[in-house]
Records
---
Amino acid sequence: MRKTYINGLGCISVQETFDTIFLEKAEINENDTILPVKTPVYKDFISPVAIRRMAKGVKNGIVASAMAMKEANVSTVDAIITGTGMGCIEDSEKFLKAIIDNKEEFLTPTSFIQSTHNTVGAQIALGLQCKAYNLTYVNGSISFESALLDAKMKIEEEEANIILVGGIDENADYTTSLFKLAGFIKRENEGPYKVLNATTKGAVYGEGATFFVLENEKKSTTYAEILDVEIINKLDVNEVESKCSAFLEANGLQVSDIDTIVLGFNGDVEFDPYYKILSENSFKNTPQAFYKQLSGEYNTASAFGLWVGAKIIKTQEVPEIISVNNLEKPAYKTILLYNQYKGIDHSFTLISKC
Amino acid sequence: MSRGIAITGMGIISAIGNTVEENYVSLVNNKMGITTIENISTVHSGEIKVGEIKKTNQQLVAELELSPDNNFSRTAMIGTIAAKQAIQEAQISSINEYKTGLISATSVGGMDMTEAHYYDYFEDENLVKYISCHEGGDVAHKIADELGLKGMVTTISTACSSAANSIMLGARLIQSGKLDRVIVGGTDALAKFTINGFKTLMILSDGYNSPFDDNRKGLNLGEAAAYLVLESDEIVKKENKKVLARVSGYGNANDAFHQTASSENGDGAFLAMEKALKVANLKPEQIDYINVHGTATPNNDLSEGRAIVRIFGEEKAPDFSSTKPLTGHTLAAAAAIEAVYSVLAIQNNVVFPNLNFQTPMQEFNLIPQTTLKHKNIEHVLSNSFGFGGNCSTLIFSKSE
Amino acid sequence: MEALKQELKEKIIDVLNLEDIKLEEINDNDALFGDGLGLDSIDALELIVMLDKDYGIKLVDPKEGKVIFKSIETMAAYIKENRAK
């Protein structure tokens, strides 16, 4: 069966993740409940005529994908597969508000068009004039992993050699106010918002666009091989460990083979037990990393997690800022990622050095 | 050689019927489901017609026996109804007995609830439960929970081709051995959001949509849900299951032309059909019926027609029809609805009529089948195209 | 008429987010679509709404826009002839 390699990365996030090596400029913000992305200079990547109607998510997606392609040194791809939990929600908001406020009159199409979930993938295709396979997944916190799994299958089916895969989500004011109301986002004035050992419900929200160029061949820019991806809709806390071992076993591995486990801790006291059970039991002696203190929580934050995993393998270090337990290994070869959101949409992703 | 992935169950609820059987009766009796809108209050109700499921949300809640504190969107409710029917026809009693997945599709998700309560959430705490039902994935989770399914659950949203892509992914997951069984399809309820969105694009008809007619004036929106059960040949053999038809071909390509419009020559559509034929290992002349996307917008039918001419030749195009005059355009669900109709065409050896057609288009000599036609149907090709140039083609084949 | 043309230029820049284009760069007879300003069919739909909202002119067929929105000159002439507000 053909293998899948990560050959290029592009990341627009709350941190400075472009023009940097690996989180050396990262800063933890424990005072805010909403973290905005550090924006690149869009006009370096997108023409003024094209940019004027683009949503934030579209712009970030285009820039992140261009960075990934540049790093992988590819100019065309055989498939574009994206994941997004909410799509370009800012435009959805704009259109919906206009409908209500203007009583369905004098509406214009631009924000409606942008609100379609596949708009990022479509605009990347338009920019690249890429007529290939183009899909978008929208399923909460496994939106990105669905795209990743599809891409891996495409390479295994020998239907594609070079694939652009990415996760994109954006914050929008009214939606975040609703998420605060519903308790998904932490309350104000309860900071500092620490992700580990948190005592309050909800999470600090972020946004971002993280893209990967996947190829069937190893080359000088290769970060890691993607060994496997598994998606499960629902698990009880006490099922996580057995599911995790079954996943490793299916790949001929055991816990001791894992050099770092990257966990999706988001500081929600209600659901972090899903990570704790792995952190405090099977993987007690394994180096552990966490990242949502840097990226914030969002539906496709796990794409940022995979970016972290790939960088660990490439740089052979787990920066202190993401280390859970300060354990080290002489070499970082095999990395397991686990993520879930509110007890649903669980994913296990396995990558290794090659 | 196998003719593709087995379909062992289907379920549907649309403007022309609440079951597969009811839909079939409407299809063969030209019973259009396009009417004035009743369940949504909109200022456009006098000037547009829609394909609406004539059941209120309260009726749907009662039918599904949901608890009073449920937070189901209409999209999730009609999706659950269709998925349950599909499971029943496939005679699945223990859903997690095999590696089973659900690949859903939606474009609006829970928008119907979001738009109904948008500014009221801060006023009424009883509404807050609906905030989480906005996103697309919520619909799939609700359906999976109602079916008791634990496994791979995901959702595709590529506008109006969404469900075709969910059927395609489901077939690939079985083909690759990742899953033994997968429930695939899509659901979209009518919403003010989409009604107004399509209105801004000026592609809504003020009358009844007339696909491939020279005087076509645009589409009627509709709402519907349909799901199909795909199973591996191992299960089919072991449990001696009845195979309704097979998913034999699939293809997706991007038009890469415009954010909403299709290209003049239908490049994306051409590539999608070409790919699906290749996967099915069929020649164009082996296709007996095309269920076209046929939305009746000036742009779609011209682009799709040109792509059909390129694949089949102007004089050799097989019988084709759009069933959207009956159901309306049901967006992310459309390809699942039309997958059910394609299977019905195969099972009953019929070509469904393309209603409301009068005048051939000037650009080419393609005339849809306008009356019910009985003939042997081995292979049906079904097209679905969406915004963002997303073009998908599925091919369904008789099992034996 | 000159004032109307100036007004249209301002509105086009605003409605279509043409922030990089200056008022004086748009000539009255420049093509707005295609090679000129580079506007496309979505812009045309935006302009149709502007006609309705600001001048009370309702177009039912988007194809009509092709002729009306040829240039600032043609737009101004059409609005002058047909405006309801």
---
Amino acid sequence: MEKLLHLLENDATLTHKELALMLSKEEGDIKSMIRQLEKDGVILGYKAIVDWDKTEKETVTALIEVKVMPQRDDGFDKIAEKIQNYPEIKGLYLMSGGFDFTVLIEGKTMKEVAYFVARKLAPIEFVTATATHFVLKTYKYNGVIYNSPKKDLRESDGI
Amino acid sequence: MIDHELMLSDTLKYIKPSGIRKFFDLLADMGDVTALTVGQPDFVTPWHIREAAIQSLERGHTYYTSNSGLPELRAEICSYMKRRFDLDYTPGEALITVGGSEAIDVAVRSLVNPGDEVIIPMPSFVCYEPIARMAGAVPVIINTKAENGFKLTANELRAAITPKTKLLVLPFPNNPTGAILEREELQAIAEVLRGTNIAILSDEIYAELTYGKRHVSIASIEGMRERTIIASGFSKAYAMTGWRLGYLLGPAPWIKQMTKLHQYAIMCAPTVSQFAAVEALKNGDDDIAGMAAEYNRRRVFITEGLREIGIEVMEPQGAFYIYPYIGGFGLSSEEFCQRLLMEEKCAIVPGTAFGECGEGYARISYAYSVRHIEEALEKIKRFVDKLK
């Protein structure tokens, strides 16, 4: 099961047949395993990893530290529910340490992101402070090194 | 004026350059070619192995090691051989070499006298015959047959043996055919050799790359260990071709003499590579499994892809090559591969590069991404459709 998840996490385009082969299992078993993992919410989706910097599209990514008023019981979850639904927000984590949430946000321009923080994020009830850090360059994300050489470095066939 | 040609060794001049090389030079000038020619993994060496090498440099391990190699590395090789192939060797029966290639060279040169016969099954890796010739030996070629799945059979071996036979080269898992020898087949070969004074050079560089069945070494067959020298290395299993690191495992009296030859010719294998190899053996089993699973995926993909195009092919069981029959289109292997290159910019190696018996065949490497293989198959299909 764990191996299957690792393979898919690494390359979601692997077919049932290929997975069966790589795990020495029957194709049918793989199919039902994946179906079950999807049903159980272990596998949540399949997406392409895009390096937008190589396209015409302008994007900017920021990591925002968010501090909130200390909450009792499921207080953090309640605040998270308010934050998580904005489509601009790509990631949301509850943190240990000096602040409470990390928000990963994507926008067209720095200004747009700044406005979002000022107008949408900061005014949310119990949010006491935010600190926005813009991403200048992505080296690695989701296990993928962005500028690894795509060129075949093998200079020789051997003999 | 000196005649440089005249001054060279006659034996060396007689040796032909590698046919793979020749073909590769041709495509080097061509630019954007979809090649399926390369005989080395496309994976970069796993990071923890590279890191161990860097660390060894940081710590100042920049000196020679002992001639036979780091004791720790030889010990790790022995425990690896036990763990993976159930073979019992001691560090005194191991010699670390500069790649599997040096291992083969040292083994052959240490075992043969001028005039001895060396039996070489073909098609196979291109180095055995030239190395045997340079040692003054007489190569005796056995052309393995398609109907036997390119396996060496006991009968073929029996027929090739003469009183002068000194050494049998056993190149399985095989480059270029992808054939492997299973236990029963090895037992039949062992039966022929038992009671003779014939040594075996078992080239097991692809031992980790078999699909469905684990590799069996002839050294594990009763009575064979005492006459077997195993040549192997790190290039294929751990994607470490550029590190140039291999080894020999065999009876201590042989290893002792082979170490002497290695000592005078090489001194010792690169120290940095030896430290990397220790890490590979200690923590690399998962890397091997991951890469083998990926090769297996490509193997099935390319086998089916070729069959769909209408090319007859045996399903390879080992290494990362497939060896299709391309003789049904009215072209020689070389013509087929050259026209495929010129007309579709797709490169594969003509079977004749691996011996005359390779006529009618081609070697295709699947040490490439599935996307790349897919692209090459489209080109091969277009070309074959034109020929039909």
---
Amino acid sequence: MKLFKKKWVTGLLTATLLGTTLVGCSSPANSSNAPKSEEGTIKKEVSKEEGVKEKGKEEKVLVWTNNRHDAEYMQQVVADFNKKHEGEINIEFVINTDNYINLITMGISSNQAPDIFCTMANQFDLKSFADSNIIQPLNPYITEEFKQIYDLKALSYEAINTLGEDIYYVPTAQRSGNRLIYNKELFQKAGIAAPPKTLPELVEMAKKITEVGGGVQYGVGMPGQSFAFSRLIEPSAQVSGVGPYDYVNGKYDFSGYKPFIEATRQMFTEGSMIPGAATMKVDPLRVQFSEGNIGMYSNASQEVGVLTDQFPAKMEWGVAEIPSLDGQIKGALSALPQVGWAMTTTVKNPEAAWKVIEYLSSLEVMVGYVEKGYSLPSSSVVMEKVDQSKISKLAEFGKKDYESVYPQFPQVTPQGKGWKDVLWEACLPTDMDIDKTLEELTKSYNEALDAEVKMGKVKRLIIKDYDPLNFSNSTYTYLNE
Amino acid sequence: MSTLTSGFNKYKSKLQNSKGIKGGWDIPLILMMLPTIVLLAVVSIYPFMWLLKYVFYDYNGFKTYFIGLDNFKRVFTNDPIYWKSVVHTFEYAFLKLLFTMPISLMVAVVLNHHLKGKNLFRIIFFIPTVISAAVYSLIFYFIYSPYNGILNNMLMEWGWITAPIDWLGSSAIAMSSVVIVAIWGGFGNYMILFLAGLQSISQEVYESADIDGASKVQSFFQITIPMLGPILKVVLLLAITTALKDYQSIMVLTGGGPLDRTQVMFLYVYQLMFGNENSAAGQLQIGYGATVGLVSSIIIGIATAVFLKLSKKLDNIY
């Protein structure tokens, strides 16, 4: 009898344990009613009833962003919206910075995706996202009022935010092309009158600053662990007419990067680069610049906010144009459309979601956004309303006539490392053979391009009349071979 | 799974044969085992099976392309980075164990004596185990910083070096720097396990040895080490498998660089499956990542089997 009783108690306890465990493992009930297709992607089926708000029920709109620098302002504008629309629409604003795009695709597969997410050019492959029904075109929702603020024709970039007539997001801001950001006091100390116009001048100036820096101040800084290649080297190559893709012949060609790699390697070997650059992340680099220990580094308009609010600079700093190889501008400097709000196919109430997009893109929000120095606007209507006295430093990042949004060349995945990783590693002071590296990189990318075109993953882009300084009127041809 | 089933059947028949329990299923036993089995199936077996399917695909997270055995062909014939990472993984694990094991054992022996404040020391040495690897690695990232880093500043102050050393950026020393962090983060955990083993050795054995005139060193090598055999085997097994799977701290410290000098197997898998923050806008390679993960798991399995074979002697308690 005792044994029987004991067994019952044990059984009861284990059943409780089992029950709680299984409850913990279960997924939230009815997280989404969106139909699921193979591979976890969601089929777009917007019913007529969708979007019709039930009386007295507050619609929740889940919004994701990966921007942290504007968090304080965005949280305030979201709070304002929620207060104004209490009982109707409520925005849940979530900041996800790590593995952002990955989280969105996983969210789609597991029915936990946001209704709207903030995005920018080159963050993901638009065609893959559209083909897989992750995002949906905004055309049915765009209003005349919206069009009055945003010139849709001017802000449509094929394969970046639009596919043919379908617009997937409208960039509300424009990340300027990179600029050379320099410490005026260190320039003066080293007897340098003006910022460099050519890459060899930059190398020379970096050396001079380091020589007078007494082991504390260094000529130049690049963050090895935070897209180092894209900060100064790639923009310098762009304005010199060098890029990774040969648009005329529709294939990759990295051979033009050699002099840029050699110049960077020289700065490493001469000790002009801040120690630790190879493994440095961008924020420690910014801190050292704001402390006055770095002569030059490069980034875009967001540095105004960084050097004003995040790490206030303790010295006078200036902004100059990116130096080219020989002082001539032979190619466009890449400017990227950003802060666009895309709608997923799993959106619960598209009308409510569009209202949120409209609000986040409105003059009310965007004028303040620009005045806070977070970015330049993509719309001239917004720019006209901005109090110019509030953006004096940001104005130095203003659009140059040679800045443009590059045509999106096919994004392939080679067997081996990504091209920016390989080119950055070639810049480090090692005995890596630059010619051989560039040759192998070109080969591996073209092999991947051929294979992926054959598989139907990407299309080969050819622009026969490609002009590196002006491609707005070029003819794009997409090939399946 | 089959081992589990056969073990369960053996236990069941043992119960049935014993006095008082006749036939039928032992419900409490099954209920007690079920949560573990369910969790194992849900969070371990199912994801593994799910992943296994993708070794034959090119999969970027939302679209699959069947490519047959191409992923295996790439691993075995055209991926020098991976094989470099395999070598680095074993180098890292060997160096980590080489220092962690003796240090843990020595500290455990010292703290097993009646010392003042021994509990405080035990807590202090165990703290790294409960701190997230990402957090303490970030602290070490700043300690190692070549510019204004505490370590360089101290060494320069003492006159041991004249110029700052790039601890994480130099190919020659990056691996050593990473291993130092691993030793700091790992030895406390093994120290606790050794302490548990030491406390299970009867004091009478030491007293007998003392009466026989054995010195402390003799007692250590002739009594402590042999009697720690079984626990040593478990600790070594745990240490080897953990070291071969380590990647979090390396990801924070060097991201596998410079020039892949600290690239290890599972960091490489992570970068293929979840992307590399520093990389160009390439797509995720989940199919290939699954293949590399599978091959890596087999390598670790082989290493573990070899260890178990070689360490059979440690089971013999004197």
---
Amino acid sequence: MDTKRTVFPSQGLPYLLVAPQLIITIIFFIWPAGQAVKSSFEREDPFGLSTSFVGLLHYLRLFQEPDYLASVGRTALFALAVTIISMGLALVLAVAVNRLIRAGTAYSTMLLWPYAVSPVVAGILWWFIFNSSTGILPYMLEFFGLDWNHQLNGTHAMILIIVAASWKQISYNFLFFLAGLQSVPQSLNEAAAIDGAGPFKRFWTIVFPLLSPTTFFLMIVNLNYTMFDTFGVIDATTAGGPNQATNTLVYKVYTDGYIGLNLGSSSAQSVILMLFVIVLTVIQFRYVERRVQY
Amino acid sequence: MASIDLKGVRKVYQGNVTAIHALDLSIADGELVVLVGPSGCGKSTLLRMIAGLETITDGTISIGEDVVNKKEPAERDIAMVFQNYALYPHMSVRQNLEYGLKNRGTPRDEIDRRVNEAARILEITPFLDRKPRQLSGGQRQRVAMGRAIVRQPKAFLFDEPLSNLDAKLRGQMRIEIRRLQRSLKTTSVYVTHDQLEAMTLADRLVVMNGGRIEQVGKPIELYDKPASLFVAGFIGSPPMNLLPIAALQAIAGGTMPNLPTGTDIVGIRPDEVVVGSGEGIALSGTVELIEPVGGESHLYVRVEGLDQTLILVQQGRASVGEADKVDFVLPLAALHGFNKESGLRVD
């Protein structure tokens, strides 16, 4: 790779130019993250007058707390469901749009809109649709004898946040899958067609394996998304309830820390989440960056 | 093994763009036919229509006894070698070769036999377990050929298979393709824009221009008797000199031979022009440039009164230098007559 080098007139200028971004990163990301790590090892008295170092106490307690362990399982279910649903549907849509010759751009544009909707609004949209007294979906489900109520039924609540979170993420996945599909050379498809493979077989033996870098990348990004960015969706729809049924790890950080004011435990939880992201990021850089050559 | 017959084949793209005008062509069993022409002449489109990758607007294409117009590429029992090879990048060479056979439910031992046989013929046995990206251009080209021959199809279709190779390798592969096709005796259609490749490979040559066939015949027949101005200019390197009679008459002074009526352009191959004196139309000019190719020299000569530069080929070294005056003769027997209006040969 040939990199373009820019020569700056003075040594200070490059630092000045990156300073705004650095300052924002330090104030809003690095410093709070450091504070979280620090307070995860400390206990504060109820009046905030004294703090004492307690070591790994918060961490050890977390792993003995049934609520926390249940939340881990719940989060895993939620993350997997959202990742599989949003990636699966996005792939189907991308394949469909990729086959279009003329209207492709129009469909792509429309399919991208949900991504521009903020998580809270997306949550409220689905909350309206699923609302047990006024929503359209419960009304229709009634014909099948199903009494929808996510305010009382934990499973219903989980389905609601999975649907809302997946819907928002499809756009993102769709865009990447479409780009991936378009970079698979047409001649490979033609060669496979001559080699006697039908459209379905061509997709699974030629196109899908060639998409694997995209698929892997999206899997990591989606897991990250469900772990963190779904706070808004959950807060706007179920607020973790009913009876903890939708209290995922990221939401629990908030409820324990801000509602329960148990800052030590909440910090420990966010540190664990942070470690999880770091691991995912390392995996991504190590494996995704290896490119597949066409 | 099969013949290929095209009858009144047309291709019209959306927006009424005609790529192929009603075209007839018969390719005999075991024959290697080369479609040659400039970019956009419709040669690749025609090949893709035979393969089933493009629809046919009108006419019929038959392979063997069957009309294949409505058949899927897979059902036509043809194999194609693509310009970019189109090897499956995530599969090993062996898997690339096996793919078409597996899809057709060929028994395992038969697959192994054919793959090993093809690998042996093409000398790619050492690379069978490598991925295509670990191979050089020439090796990839062989794998692409291998993928075609393991199938033992009715016909091979080649879409400019050598254009991504360097000149030396291209020459080698050309000979190998010819040898392979002779020994397998599989009907082949080969598309190229390289007239040298076309001349040396073809049993029969089809020169195309603007979606139409200009001339069909043995390469040497086309060289000796080009049917049109286009073929005259396209086949042969360096190209034929095409000179307007009127201008020639004005400078050569009176002694014009009796040419058939309707002739207004004469053509002469650069290697048929005789430097010095002799029978024929005597001309003289100034040497602008000499290209020493090695075994022969190409002289670019400017003649007073002619718009274009004449090309002369001299065997060995040039007998004159650049900027020198040179006398030369166009022997009458070597002249080709053409009509400017129709663009056709006049005999």
